[in-house]
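[recover] target loaded
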């Protein structure tokens, strides 16, 4: 349930309304938007008298929210959420962010080389995996703490915020210098991890699970926000299908659907979606045209010898071409 307040209500009037609601064992969540202020009622609201709420002087109207996700719901928060990471803005009408880098951190030289090319092409955030969830236990699992140290060096050298995947809440202390924590597709419904991330104050990039519905993705984001962390981004990275021509099926429809349902920023990952370099740029363009807030793309200077996912990584010149074409799409929009 949400209570839409009248224009010009005072702070005291808002506090009085929240006190009244909370006395009935209902949580309140106040959102002050550009044009209106909304008080979200969270909990079992079946006992709340909507007509009585609407008679209160500070209330303009009251609406029930049928969806199970509340905090991520655009009805609770009509304005787009804007997340700031250093000098980078994610979300909002004029923002577009590109996160680029290798799937796995392999060496300092590798990351420095790729970061220089990615930044020159216009990327503003450097991505790299230090801990890697792999289908086979014998595949490269990442460099761990050493990989995070290399990412920190990239951050200092190029002035780029860094994003890396966290797999275990017990590793949170190791990620102190990481600006954005990524939750991979396999961990989208790792609720223990999501609850711990809800207690942090770091931005979270939450990837859609391999066979997750849009509502399941939003409910996972709700876990994080229910813990107190409202800096959440959603990432469409493709879902599993019977078709083997691509690694996954990129759900471009999810972008406008999510835009309608939630205020959270939406990032697209065309690399994991397609699995093949030649398909990454076309899907990146489609996602941009569909209205995403940014892209996460894998770039590698020597993909033939990459420790993981070399088949879907763009060479630096291919990444530059993608960025040039994305700019044309954004200009047309």
């Amino acid at each position: 349930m949400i209570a839409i307040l009248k224009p010009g209500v005072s702070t005291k009037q808002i506090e009085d309304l929240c006190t009244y609601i909370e006395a009935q064992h209902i949580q309140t969540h106040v959102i002050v938007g550009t044009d209106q202020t909304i008080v979200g009622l969270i909990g079992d609201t079946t006992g709340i008298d909507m007509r009585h709420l609407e008679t209160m002087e500070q209330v303009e109207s009251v609406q029930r929210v049928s969806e199970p996700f509340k905090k991520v719901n655009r009805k609770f928060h009509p304005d787009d959420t804007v997340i700031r990471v250093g000098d980078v803005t994610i979300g909002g009408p004029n923002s577009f962010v590109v996160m680029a880098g290798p799937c796995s951190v392999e060496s300092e030289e590798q990351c420095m080389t790729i970061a220089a090319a990615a930044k020159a092409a216009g990327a503003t955030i450097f991505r790299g995996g230090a801990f890697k969830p792999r289908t086979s236990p014998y595949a490269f699992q990442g460099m761990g703490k050493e990989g995070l140290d290399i990412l920190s060096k990239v951050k200092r050298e190029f002035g780029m915020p860094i994003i890396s995947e966290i797999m275990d809440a017990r590793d949170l202390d190791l990620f102190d210098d990481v600006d954005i924590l990524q939750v991979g597709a396999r961990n989208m419904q790792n609720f223990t991890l999501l609850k711990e991330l809800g207690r942090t104050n770091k931005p979270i990039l939450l990837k859609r699970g391999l066979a997750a519905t849009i509502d399941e993705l939003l409910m996972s984001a709700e876990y994080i926000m229910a813990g107190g962390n409202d800096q959440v981004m959603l990432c469409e990275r493709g879902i599993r299908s019977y078709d083997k021509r691509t690694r996954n099926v990129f759900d471009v429809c999810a972008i406008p659907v999510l835009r309608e349902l939630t205020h959270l920023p939406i990032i697209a990952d065309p690399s994991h979606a397609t699995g093949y370099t030649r398909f990454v740029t076309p899907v990146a363009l489609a996602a941009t045209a569909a209205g995403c807030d940014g892209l996460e793309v894998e770039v590698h200077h020597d993909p033939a010898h990459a420790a993981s996912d070399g088949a879907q990584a763009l060479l630096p010149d291919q990444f530059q071409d993608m960025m040039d074409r994305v700019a044309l799409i954004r200009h047309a929009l």
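[recover] notes: The mean pLDDT is 94.
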